[in-house]
Design brief:
InterPro entries: DCAF17. The chain has 519 residues and is mostly beta strands. The protein contains 6 helices and 36 strands. Among the domains are: 36 residues, no CATH class; 201 residues, no CATH class. The strands form 10 sheets. A 4-stranded antiparallel β-sheet has the order 1-36-35-34, with no helix packed on it. Strands 2-3-4-5 form a 4-stranded antiparallel β-sheet, with no helix packed on it. The radius of gyration is 27 Å and the shape is globular.
């Protein structure tokens, strides 16, 4: 006869089962989620305000990455987390040969053993004009690692993620022959170079070239994302290939950073000057094609559940018309043609919601539609596009009346209609998603007199309900370039004016404790 269970043993088993499924009350993740839930409630209170605590101006671009503001081509780093932004580090002005072309913030992975203590802190990966890839401490700017990519045969210019915080891609500018070489009919077959790295610890996966002899003459751009090699063509064609299959099939020899190598008659150290990295993935034949689509301006997106893609038919007259189709069989979804019929200077835009819900966000001048995929009734093989919710701009004081009456009683008829994005009407300029607080943020702008006024609104991501509105104090000129970041309790507005003049405005959350005490 089995012994009876000790008192409380059943509760222990239940706790262990819940812990295995991620339900453990004392788990750090649970505490973090609760804290973010509290922060969201505080942020959306009527008494909570956002105060402009800091403003700066610069003659060079201003960048922002998770609580850090970068000035002077990443030579100056300012923490925006403190009550008033403070300098983390200031490096001497760099020469033109040390100019930084692009940068990515690298954060420590959870639950992994790393070779160096510095790997457990955030770092910044930067790409210089002389083809150096540097890993810098995000807090001090100290150089932690240096990798030399290649000589003058190519100019690397762009950094991107294949898999965020796991696999990084360094892309060259498109290779173009000098005019003198083109005049004597010298042919340039290599269009782009791609170098791929695993990060933390930083390790070299391989380098490959995109050759017109393999992929065709009309290639205009290339990218690697989520394990897919994406090749774009001047005729609007987009082709997808399996990057992992390519690297396995055409890898001539693997190499490790810092190790000596003998390659094509050259002897050197991988990632060291002057040899750099070997081009060890040689594509000698056209790889198997996964998928191809034709879309205006190569606009192509994949997302949703089950998988769908969004394109614009490849004719100029269809600009602003979006087709949502099944990736499985290219079938157009029911109600899958989305057209806002906007009459505006700036086109509407559409994309898959970044919250991984499979929904779609379609943004027009005065309307934001959040769409969802659902099965067609009585037909499980077909999906339809349905409206989840909409957000409408506040245009109560419409200025688009065709007929107006003057103070003297004279009737005046307008001979033209205003555009949908006319500055005198409230118009959506930015839509973003704050994943940690699960809030949809929108920036709407209205021109009042000579000044443009903008406000940042927070909406419930599930239902679209307006929860909070924050006025931005600075004037907003719709002809300038703008970026707005909403990062938990921080709002940051970066503005680019003509003649390379940049401004940064920082707002921080403050609570009116007197009102809180009353409530």
């Amino acid at each position: 006869r089995a012994a009876s269970r000790a008192p409380g043993a059943r509760n222990v088993c239940r706790l262990l089962t819940r812990r295995a499924h991620g339900f453990y009350a004392r788990d750090a993740g649970v505490a973090h989620r609760k804290n973010l839930g509290l922060l969201r409630k505080i942020l959306c209170q009527e008494s909570t305000k956002f105060k402009n605590v800091w403003t700066t101006h610069s003659a060079s671009p201003i960048a922002y990455e998770r609580g850090r503001i970068y000035l002077d081509n990443y030579q100056c780093c300012i923490s925006s987390i403190a009550q008033e932004p403070r300098i983390l580090y200031q490096k001497p002005k760099c020469s033109k040969s040390e100019k930084i072309e692009d940068a990515l913030l690298l954060e420590c992975p959870l639950g992994e053993m790393l070779p160096s203590p510095s790997d457990y802190k955030s770092s910044l990966i930067v790409l210089t004009v002389q083809n150096w890839l540097l890993r810098l401490s995000a807090d001090s700017g100290e150089i932690l690692e240096k990798i030399y990519l290649a000589g003058s045969c190519c100019k690397f210019r762009y950094l991107s993620w294949d898999t965020p915080q796991e696999v990084m891609v360094v892309k060259s500018a498109q290779n173009k022959l000098p005019a003198a070489a083109r005049q004597v009919s010298i042919q340039q077959s290599v269009l782009f170079y791609l170098a791929v790295f695993q990060v933390l610890p930083l390790s070299f996966i391989g380098m490959l070239e995109i050759n017109k002899k393999i992929f065709g003459n009309s290639v205009t751009d290339v990218a690697v994302s989520n394990g897919i090699l994406i090749v774009m063509y001047s005729v609007g064609l987009v082709r997808l290939y399996n990057f992992q299959a390519i690297s396995e099939q055409f890898m001539e020899q693997p190499f490790d950073l810092g190790h000596e190598f003998n390659w094509n008659g050259q002897v050197g150290v991988v990632g060291k000057y002057p040899f750099g990295l070997p081009c060890n993935i040689k594509i000698t034949d056209t790889p198997p094609l996964l998928f191809e689509a034709s879309s205006l301006e190569n606009a192509f997106q994949i997302g949703g559940y089950p998988w769908h893609y969004i394109i614009t038919p490849n004719k100029k007259k269809h600009k602003g018309v979006f087709h949502i189709c099944s990736l499985k069989d290219n079938a157009l979804a029911k109600n899958g043609i989305q057209d806002m019929k906007c009459c505006s200077l700036e086109p509407d835009w559409i994309y898959f919601h970044p919250d991984m819900s499979g929904r779609i966000i379609h943004v027009g001048p005065n309307l934001i539609k959040v769409l969802k995929l659902k099965e067609v009734k009585n037909n499980t093989d077909q999906m339809e596009i349905a409206e989840d919710f909409t957000i409408v701009a506040n245009r109560e004081n419409s200025v688009n009346n065709a007929v107006t009456v003057t103070a003297s009683g004279r009737v005046v008829k307008k001979r033209f209609n205003l555009l949908d994005d006319d500055p005198e009407q409230e118009t959506f300029k930015i839509v973003d998603y704050e994943d940690e607080l699960d809030l949809l943020s929108t920036v709407a702008v209205t021109e009042i007199g000579a000044d443009g006024r903008a406000h940042l609104d927070f909406h419930c991501n599930e239902h679209g309900i307006l929860l909070k509105s924050i006025p931005l104090l600075e004037s907003w000129d719709v002809t300038y370039s703008h970026e707005v970041y909403f990062d938990k309790d921080l709002v940051l507005h970066i503005e680019q004016k003509p003649n390379r003049r940049f401004s940064c405005y920082v707002y921080q959350m403050v609570c009116d404790t007197a009102k809180d005490d009353e409530s």
